[in-house]
Design goal:
It is a single chain. With about 325 residues, the chain is of the alpha/beta class. It is built from eleven helices and eleven strands. The longest helix is centred in the middle third of the chain and has 22 residues. The protein is elongated, with a radius of gyration of 21 Å. It starts with a strand and ends with a helix. About 50% of the residues are buried. It binds 6-O-phosphono-beta-D-fructofuranose.
Length: about 325
């Protein structure tokens, strides 16, 4: 193998740059040429390639976002679009491709690896932590720390006003960010898709907390399918209990910022392992980390199989918040 490519796709995640840097430097040390593909699959279809050398990835390890740019490509969902991408790979002689992204990226990657002769490996980069086949995804640790910082700040003002707050975090249809930032931030209640709770049940618990002497509470809500749903929940709670509240939606603040040390180490390790996997002739798999060991999971499984929340953590949050 002489030449490989690397792209970032889907929502950006802090640590993607550290992963690009590691992949580039390991590839070059192994005597490979490596091309960066700008703007994810959209750039692959257009042939938006840039050569990468050691200097091209200098001073990016601490930066959030992705220097390659990212996008969600509708065209790549079509067989025709993927055909164009395959042709581009052939035209510039790519023999291996590293995809850094999440569920959507790996859905596309699964089809690409079936349809083209190029070895494709995925690296999990998403703040959502929802990829099966890895304990943590690149960007998750930074995102939960960003959410935590916000929750801590909100707790100050919640206490000062004896107020109920709903803090909505990202995570698409999963509650990983909500659960871990909720535990770390001492949230009183959690609203997550994996363990649905009715608003009536939430009201019952909040009233109970109030009877126990709690005057301020923080409910961490996972955005789930309906970003902004916290406003509806808050209104319903007001109607049913009379509790006044405030809503804070953290949104894209969770996607930016300098990656934590943990994310940089994970990203560096997985980027290096992805290049090694290609050299070893592996393809059609995602490179993750399970119990501190590098793990290879078929790309298809990463989005077809459901990664579960740590059951013990949800129980813990309930036990600690009483
Ligand atoms: O997948 C990462 C993520 O930040 C999700 O948590 C969120 O639902 C989604 O992306 C938001 O996407 P966009 O940036 O396209 O609004």
């Amino acid at each position: 193998m002489k030449k490989i490519g690397i792209l970032t796709s889907g929502g950006d995640a802090p640590g993607m740059n550290a992963c690009i840097r590691a992949a580039v430097r390991v590839a070059l040390a192994e005597g490979l040429e490596i091309s960066g593909i700008k703007w994810g699959y959209a750039g692959l279809i257009r042939g938006d390639f840039i050569p990468l050398d050691r200097r091209a990835v200098a001073n990016i390890i601490h930066q959030g976002g992705t220097v390659l740019g990212t996008a969600r490509s509708e065209e790549f969902r079509t067989k025709e679009g993927r055909g164009k991408a395959v042709k581009m790979c052939q035209d510039i002689g790519l023999e291996g491709l590293i995809l850094i992204g999440g569920e959507g990226t790996f859905r596309g990657g699964t089809m690409l690896s079936q349809e083209c002769g190029v070895n494709v490996v995925g690296v999990p980069g998403t703040i959502d932590n929802d990829c099966y086949g890895t304990d943590y995804t690149i960007g998750f640790d930074t995102a939960i720390n960003t959410a935590l910082e916000a929750i801590d700040r909100i707790r100050d003002t919640a206490m000062s006003h004896d107020r109920l707050f709903f803090v909505e975090v990202m995570g698409r249809d999963t509650g990983f960010i909500a659960l871990e930032s909720g535990i770390a931030g001492g949230a009183e209640e959690l609203f997550i898709p994996e363990e649905p709770m009715t608003v009536d049940e939430l009201c019952r618990r909040l009233v109970e907390n109030f009877k126990q002497g709690k005057r301020s509470s923080i409910v961490v809500v996972a955005e789930a399918d309906q970003p902004g749903e916290s406003f509806h929940i808050a209104r319903e709670v007001k109607d049913k209990t009379g509790f006044d509240s405030r809503v804070c939606i953290l949104g894209h603040t969770q996607r930016g910022g300098s990656p934590t040390a943990r994310d940089r180490v994970l990203a560096s390790r997985l980027g290096a392992a992805a290049v090694q996997a290609l050299i070893d002739g592996k393809g059609g798999c995602m490179i993750g980390e399970i119990n501190r060991e590098i793990a290879y999971t078929p790309l298809k499984d990463t989005w077809e199989k459901k990664k579960s929340l740590h059951a013990g953590l949800t129980t813990l949050l309930n036990a600690l918040s009483d």
